[in-house]
Amino acid sequence: TTPDTCYPPMTEQPLIAEVSQKALIRSPADELLVMQADAETWELPGGRMGAAEAPIAGLKREVHEETGLSVSVGEPIHTAAWRNDVGRGRFSVVYFCETEATTVELSDEHCAFEWVSPSTARDEFLTVSIHQTAIDRLLAADSSPVGQPAASND
User: DSSP character for 123?
Assistant: First the structure.
């Protein structure tokens, strides 16, 4: 192998993480759905996977629970791994999704929602950096990410 493809062995314990899936949902008007969780937090819909749940089924379940929407799910557009403030592992996947409906039925997890342009979602609403990065990747794509290979993580 060449130095470019040779990696040193892992020297620390592997990340054991709770998995969170989020949906970057595009409407027929090319707007994205953003949801207000509290006075300071705007985010994308989605949530944690169940232990025995298939990823796409879990994402569709979370989106429906939080919004009442049915979505078509495309490829992951962004992933991130980190440890939270108390050292617990987290792994997040943001999927590109589309919907034909725009009538949202809020669950008790959110207090408001907006359909806005991708740049407005990123610049004026979303407070979670992982979600902002997912929109950057969406905007950088030449065409719809549905069916494209998953984006790599920096």
Answer: I
Within 103-149, strands assigned E span 112-116
The token pair at 36 is 């207000």
**Nearest in space to 138 (alpha carbons), one of 30, 20, 45, 41:** 30
State how far the alpha carbon of 31 is from the alpha carbons of 12, 19, 25, 68, 92, in Å. 42, 26, 8, 17, 22
pTM metric for this prediction: 0.82
Q: Rounded to the nearest 5 degrees, what angle is found at the Cα of 99, between the Cα atoms of 61 and 24?
A: 70
Summarised one tens digit per residue, pLDDT across range 31-69 is: 999 999 999 999 999 999 888 999 999 999 999 999 999
